[in-house]
């Protein structure tokens, strides 16, 4: 099944931030406080949405990266980022997202962590935490 609005241009919301790692990135949705781990391919695809991209543009660039036969995996990733609300529809110039450099292709994976950040972070003033000596 193709992603929603195949020709709709999507851009990462301003309150979705990323920390780049050697093996991809960690994406934090500041609105929901959920975070995601992205492998290098998923991170490269997400970068296309920083300036705005359509699903068709993402699929086209994926083919240039060597994603032959991996169209369903790319579509699932696009559907996931739309369903999670990480992107919003925008008016943006065509082709702006196609400047992402070539990557070594592996199937894109974006894993949502089960707990939002506020449940993981502990206050330094928590009486249950031992004091530094």
The CATH topology is: Outer Surface Protein A, domain 3
What is the typical, i.e. mean, pLDDT? Answer: 82
Oligomer: single chain
The percent range for helix content is: 25-40%
Radius of gyration: 17 Å
- Broad CATH class: Alpha Beta
Number of strands: 6
> What is the element string, with H for helices and E for strands?
EEEEHHHEEH
**Number of domains in the coordinates?**
1
Strand fraction? 15-25%
Describe it for me?
The protein is of the alpha+beta class. It contains four helices and six strands, in the order ββββαααββα. The strands form two sheets. It has a four-stranded antiparallel beta sheet, covered by helices on one side. The longest helix has 13 residues, at about 70-85. The mean pLDDT is about 80.
Task: Set down the secondary structure blueprint.
Elements: E1 10-12, E2 16-21, E3 24-29, E4 35-38, H1 40-51, H2 55-65, H3 71-83, E5 87-89, E6 110-112, H4 117-120
Antiparallel strand pairs: 1-5, 2-3, 3-4, 4-6
Helix pairs in contact: 2-3
């Amino acid at each position: 099944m193709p992603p929603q609005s195949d020709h709709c241009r999507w851009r990462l919301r301003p309150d979705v931030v990323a920390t780049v790692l050697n093996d991809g990135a960690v994406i934090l949705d500041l609105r929901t406080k959920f975070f995601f781990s992205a492998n290098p391919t998923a991170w490269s695809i997400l970068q296309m949405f920083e300036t705005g991209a359509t699903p068709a543009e993402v699929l086209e660039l994926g083919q240039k990266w060597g994603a032959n036969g991996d169209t369903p995996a790319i579509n699932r990733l696009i559907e996931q980022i739309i369903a999670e609300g990480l992107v919003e529809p925008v008016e943006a110039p065509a082709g702006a997202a196609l400047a992402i450099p070539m990557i070594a292709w592996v199937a894109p994976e974006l894993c949502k962590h089960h707990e939002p950040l506020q449940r993981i972070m502990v206050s330094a003033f928590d009486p249950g935490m031992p004091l530094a000596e």
